[in-house]
């Protein structure tokens, strides 16, 4: 009788855990799965904490409910399989605002990540360049072209649309700049239609029309018990051996599989497995690949990341507008780039004692000196700047928390998707029992990371001779 396969998953974030669950669901019975997490905590950027006696997210706060085809997103499907569907809750307030000329204005409707499909709807926030988006008789992009988002939008609609709409929207998701980020990687639907349509507004409308929608259906969701409940449930359902504080320092091919070097140099542990899923950020993945697939390691390691800090304050009975929060264009000259009114946005977090939870994010790619401030200075600056934007003096916080996420958000330069495809093709051809997964390759957001982990698991099952059906 053949022994069960042994699979190592390097990285205990939601990508790695999703891979572990999928392996348990579809790999042959008895498959030995071990998750190696270098820190003492699972979940990566999913972290539910407590502030002023109540729960609050110190990392990602929500997920998309639908996938691009209109069905359940990968994380919603996972939540259902884990028996957590009844815990899904949706925002009570969906309207957000933009800071423009020091004041708040509603985020206009009809845009795709800030790129307008109706110029009249954005006129109160940004003035599109006159007659710039003309039909030149050819598609905006060639069949395989990829460009920075900012370059395309500036050329078609002018600087204000980028600086006041697109840049803060992308900054809220990626902590990046529209002038640096790949259109194909960050707005794939718009990239597809831009290869057909002759105007940017036409491309936005075509992308919106192609996206299935159910009127009134919620766009975002989270879990009433906090997103850490998803982490815990996934770890339990995977049946995997969980190794915390277990850094994988080296990865080498053997005659029958792989050898992992785990732990500190003086007390190194050597583990033999049949297959490996690398579910860690690009740079640590590149270090592990260097000894095995050196021809792709350099490409993987080129991906840069932005660091951010999330500052959460518990405020006694503050005067907050009925908004989910606001985004801040870099042109406003503020340290903060976004703020979320947690207890306004999420009805399940509202408290009888009137304490409100407010979170702000700090840190933009290429301008991260703000993250060198002390926790106390960050809290004071956020308190002052939010008060200024709202035009009120916020009360003194009764509690606060500063969460620093170093190297948290990948920055996808133009050509990213092609580079990832080439890397994966090379790895698959040389080492089919090695799979790469995570935000560094496939995109940010919980659903994308879950899908990435599940896809990697299916590749491993197939490579080991099983069926991923």
From TrEMBL:
- Localization (cell): Cytoplasm
- Residues in Amine oxidase domain copies: 14-461
Task: Identify the InterPro entries for this entry.
Answer: Amino_oxidase, FAD/NAD-bd_sf, Protoporphyrinogen_oxidase, Zeta_carotene_desat/Oxidored
Specify the enzyme's EC class, one word: oxidoreductase
Where does the signal sequence lie?
none
Record SUPFAM superfamilies: FAD-linked reductases, C-terminal domain, FAD/NAD(P)-binding domain
Q: Which residues form a coiled coil?
A: none
Q: Which cofactor does it need?
A: FAD
Which keywords annotate this record? Cytoplasm, FAD, Flavoprotein, Heme biosynthesis, Oxidoreductase
Write the Enzyme Commission number(s) for this entry.
1.3.3.15
GO cellular component term, pick one = cytoplasm
Chief location of this protein?
cytoplasm
Q: Does the keyword Secreted apply?
A: no
Q: Pathway of this protein? A: Porphyrin-containing compound metabolism; protoheme biosynthesis
Provide the GO biological process annotations: heme biosynthetic process
Pfam families documented for this protein: Amino_oxidase
Molecular-function GO terms, alphabetical: oxygen-dependent protoporphyrinogen oxidase activity
Q: Which PANTHER family match?
A: PROTOPORPHYRINOGEN OXIDASE
Q: Which family does it belong to?
A: Belongs to the protoporphyrinogen/coproporphyrinogen oxidase family. Coproporphyrinogen III oxidase subfamily.
Function summary: Involved in coproporphyrin-dependent heme b biosynthesis. Catalyzes the oxidation of coproporphyrinogen III to coproporphyrin III.
Quote the protein name from its UniProt record.
Coproporphyrinogen III oxidase
């Amino acid at each position: 009788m053949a022994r069960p396969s042994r699979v190592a998953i390097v990285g205990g974030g939601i990508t790695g855990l999703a891979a572990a669950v999928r392996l348990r669901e579809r790999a042959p019975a008895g498959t030995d799965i071990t998750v190696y997490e270098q820190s003492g905590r699972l979940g990566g950027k999913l972290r539910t904490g407590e502030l002023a006696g109540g729960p609050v997210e110190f990392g990602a706060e929500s997920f998309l409910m639908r996938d691009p085809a209109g069905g359940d997103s990968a994380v919603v499907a996972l939540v259902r399989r884990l028996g957590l569907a009844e815990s899904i809750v949706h925002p009570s307030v969906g309207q957000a605002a933009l800071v423009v000329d020091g004041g708040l204005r509603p985020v206009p409707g009809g845009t795709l990540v800030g790129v307008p499909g109706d110029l009249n709807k954005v006129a109160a926030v940004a003035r599109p360049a006159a007659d710039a988006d003309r039909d030149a008789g050819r598609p905006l992009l060639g069949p395989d072209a990829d460009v920075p988002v900012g370059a395309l939008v500036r050329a078609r609609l002018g600087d204000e649309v980028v600086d006041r709409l697109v840049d803060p929207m992308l900054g809220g998701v990626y902590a990046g700049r529209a002038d640096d980020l790949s259109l194909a990687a960050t707005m794939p639907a718009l990239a597809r239609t831009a290869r057909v349509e002759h105007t940017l507004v036409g491309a936005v409308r075509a992308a919106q029309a192609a996206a299935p929608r159910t009127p009134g259906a919620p766009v975002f969701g989270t879990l009433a018990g906090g997103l850490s409940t998803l982490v815990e449930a996934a770890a339990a359902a995977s049946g995997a051996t969980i190794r915390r504080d277990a850094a994988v320092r080296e990865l080498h091919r053997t005659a029958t599989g792989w050898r992992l070097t785990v732990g500190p140099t003086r007390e190194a542990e050597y583990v033999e497995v049949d297959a490996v899923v690398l579910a860690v950020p690009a740079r640590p993945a590149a270090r592990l690949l260097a000894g095995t697939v050196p021809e792709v390691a350099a490409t993987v390691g080129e991906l840069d990341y932005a660091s951010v800090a999330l500052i959460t304050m518990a405020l006694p009975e503050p005067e907050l507008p009925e908004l989910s929060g606001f985004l801040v264009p870099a042109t406003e000259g503020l340290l903060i780039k976004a703020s979320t009114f947690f207890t306004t946005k999420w009805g399940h977090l509202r408290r009888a004692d009137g304490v409100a939870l407010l979170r702000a994010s700090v840190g933009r790619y290429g301008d991260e000196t703000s993250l060198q401030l002390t926790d106390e200075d960050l809290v004071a600056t956020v308190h002052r700047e939010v008060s200024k934007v709202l035009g009120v003096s916020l009360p003194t916080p009764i509690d606060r928390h500063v969460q620093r996420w170093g190297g948290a958000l990948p920055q996808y330069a133009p050509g990213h998707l092609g580079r990832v495809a080439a890397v994966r093709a090379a790895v698959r051809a040389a080492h089919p029992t090695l799979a790469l997964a995570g935000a560094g390759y496939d995109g940010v957001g919980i659903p994308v990371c879950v899908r990435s982990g599940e896809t990697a698991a299916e590749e491993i099952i197939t490579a080991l001779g099983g069926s991923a059906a």
